């Protein structure tokens, strides 16, 4: 290879290096321009304490102007009336940490605090607007939040593990009870009951329908001369007394099957949402 050829190859490699080196250099990130200094709105309906919580992140300064106020215009589900709720970053009225850039407020969900209260059983969208003032400029965020239904919960079941049939033609009554809680309030509980599966033949009793339980205080006549056996109305404890017929009964309608049964308890609310099932096994001898 001649000296002239070697010099030509060297220049080719140098030129190629100049072309590819810029693509290997570290790119300097370009900071995005802030168009709205208020962001990330938050809303929480705190059902248990019956409070409304609002929050929004705000820049302390924007284009040379300091933030002067942050306001929530709360419409709830009513778009015709609004509540004015001022947020703060001073660590007061539900704001947890002062001067952290998160302006917030907790306010009572009562008519002495706001017009647009949220009813305990509400399900659906609510509307609010947050505005932040910087000098003569106002920045706004319109926001909708969806309040979901909270399903009822069966806290406990009271039922025997073993049931002994009485002798002869006698009849015993046993009380079955379930304690039900609904965060939307006890009036949101529509029903509670259980199905009974006879395990050995694998058949559902009562045509597969729930055996209903009652929170009526035992005062409502379910069938002629037959009451639920519930102790107190409206306490969230649903009860039913079921008859256990003696082994000597010959009437087909007055015979209690023996064997192992799987009882599955479920509660339902006014939105037709069910609790998680609670299972209980019982042996009838």
Query: Could you say which structural class the secondary elements and strand pairing correspond to?
Result: mainly beta
Question: At the first level of CATH, what is the class of the largest domain?
Answer: Mainly Beta
Number of domains: 2
The residue-averaged pLDDT reads 87
Share of residues in helices? under 10%
Counted beta strands: 19
**Beta-strand residue percentage:** over 45%
Distance between the termini: 106 Å
Name of the CATH architecture of the largest domain: Sandwich
Order of helices and strands: HEEEEEEEEEEEEEEEEEEE
Q: How would you characterize the overall build of this protein?
A:
- By secondary structure, the chain is mainly beta.
- The protein has two domains: 38-147, Immunoglobulin-like; 153-284, Immunoglobulin-like (Sandwich).
- The protein is 8% helix and 46% strand.
- The protein has one helix and 19 strands.
- The protein has one helix at 3-24, and strands at 38-46, 51-58, 61-62, 65-76, 83-87, 102-108, 124-134, 137-147, 153-158, 162-163, 171-181, 189-198, 203-204, 211-213, 221-223, 226-227, 237-245, 259-269, 278-284.
- The strands form five sheets. Strands 10, 12, 13, 14, 18 and 19 form a six-stranded mixed sheet that branches.
- A hairpin with a 2-residue loop joins strand 15 and strand 16 (226-227).
- The chain starts with a helix and ends with a strand.
- The model is unreliable at 6-25 (pLDDT under 50).
């Amino acid at each position: 290879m001649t000296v002239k050829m070697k010099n030509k190859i060297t220049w080719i490699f140098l030129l190629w290096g100049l072309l590819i080196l810029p693509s290997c250099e570290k790119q300097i990130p370009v900071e995005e321009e802030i168009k709205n200094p208020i962001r990330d709105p938050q809303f929480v309906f705190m059902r248990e304490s019956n409070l409304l919580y609002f929050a929004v992140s705000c820049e302390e300064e924007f284009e040379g102007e300091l933030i002067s106020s942050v306001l929530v215009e709360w419409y709830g589900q009513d778009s015709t009336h609004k509540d004015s709720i001022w947020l703060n970053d001073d660590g007061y009225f539900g704001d947890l940490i002062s001067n952290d850039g998160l302006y917030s407020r907790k306010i009572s969900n009562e008519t002495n605090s706001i017009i647009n209260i949220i009813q305990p059983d509400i399900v659906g969208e609510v509307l609010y607007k947050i505005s932040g003032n910087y000098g003569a400029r106002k920045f706004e965020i319109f926001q909708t939040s969806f309040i979901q239904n909270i399903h009822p919960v069966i806290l406990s079941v009271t039922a025997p593990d073993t049931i002994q049939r009485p002798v002869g033609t006698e009849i015993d009554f046993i009380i079955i009870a379930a304690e039900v809680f609904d965060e939307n309030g006890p009036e949101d509980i529509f029903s509670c009951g259980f199905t009974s599966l006879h395990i050995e033949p694998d058949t559902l009793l009562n045509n597969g329908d729930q055996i209903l339980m009652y929170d009526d205080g035992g005062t409502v006549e379910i069938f002629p001369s037959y009451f639920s056996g519930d102790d107190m109305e409206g306490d969230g404890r649903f009860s039913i007394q079921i008859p256990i017929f003696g082994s000597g009964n010959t009437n087909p309608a007055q015979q209690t099957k023996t064997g192992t049964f799987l009882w599955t308890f479920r509660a339902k609310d006014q939105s037709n949402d069910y609790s998680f099932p609670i299972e209980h096994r019982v042996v009838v001898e």
